[in-house]
Amino acid sequence: MDGKQWTKGLCTDIVEGIRKHYCVTLLLVHRLSPSRVQFRAGSSIRGKGGSVHLATQLIAHPLYDYYTIDFDVAVVRVSVPFAFGVAVQPISLIISEPAAGEYGVVTGWGTLSSGTSELSTLLQAVNVTIASREECNAAYSVFGGITEHMICAGSSGGGKGACQGDSGGPLAVRGELAGIVSWGGGCAQDSYPGVYTSVASLRDFITEQAGVK
């Protein structure tokens, strides 16, 4: 794509005049210059339709840890405001962490199975269930468990969840942004729920960097 890095992100519903310029994403942008990051809005087809917005500023969390993948979030300012309408809508940031057992929806254009490299052409969506911290820490005990800035979600029996290429995509709970696809053991494995950046725990960073309280 002309050497550009296409990055998934979520436009946050903050205040008018600011919210149309900012998106939240993962630290896929950590080692990139803004000129290499673009967003497409208003299309469910990968690489086609909608509007393209170039990044002008990448604000990575200063405490991001490459090894533990902690604080895995960044705020991106784009050059041209997003025009909200039927096909483009902001999403509110959740205030408190969702409880275990709550249902959520994760979306993305990632691969449809683990180990493949072919991305989906059409936007995919699956229902997942928030896992308890105890369950998630047990699943990832060999990695030291998860941090307070992470949450987990998956499906009973596996088979549904985020996969390669979905990183940076949203996990919505009750219509609010609760998580951002971060990492996990394979794709939609029964024994390894997907790990997401916890938006509630990093909400202050997101709003502060976007210039709102």
Provide a compact summary of the structure.
By secondary structure, the chain is mainly β. The protein has helices at 133-139, 203-209, and strands at residues 5-6, 10-11, 22-25, 37-41, 51-60, 74-78, 103-108, 124-130, 150-154, 170-173, 176-183, 194-198. InterPro entries: Peptidase_S1, Peptidase_S1_PA, Peptidase_S1_PA_chymotrypsin, Peptidase_S1A, Trypsin_dom, TRYPSIN_SER.
CATH domain class of the largest domain: Mainly Beta
Whole-number tally of structural domains: 2
Overall geometric form: globular
Helical percentage: under 10%
- End-to-end C-alpha gap: 37 Å
Write the layout of secondary structure elements.
Blueprint: E1 5-6, E2 10-11, E3 22-25, E4 37-41, E5 51-60, E6 74-78, E7 103-108, E8 124-130, H1 133-139, E9 150-154, E10 170-173, E11 176-183, E12 194-198, H2 203-209
Parallel strand pairs: 1-4
Antiparallel strand pairs: 2-3, 3-6, 4-5, 5-6, 7-8, 7-10, 8-9, 9-12, 10-11, 11-12
Task: Characterise the protein shown here.
This protein has 213 residues and is mainly beta. The chain is globular and about 45 Å long. Strand 10 and strand 11 form a beta hairpin. A six-stranded mixed beta sheet has the order 1-4-5-6-3-2, with no helix packed on it. Helix content is 7%, strand content 30%. It is built from two helices and twelve strands. The chain folds into two domains: 22-89 and 202-210, Beta Barrel (Thrombin, subunit H), CATH 2.40.10; 102-201, Beta Barrel (Thrombin, subunit H), CATH 2.40.10. It comes from Cryptotermes secundus. InterPro entries: Peptidase_S1 (IPR050430), Peptidase_S1_PA (IPR009003), Peptidase_S1_PA_chymotrypsin (IPR043504), Peptidase_S1A (IPR001314), Trypsin_dom (IPR001254), TRYPSIN_SER (IPR033116).
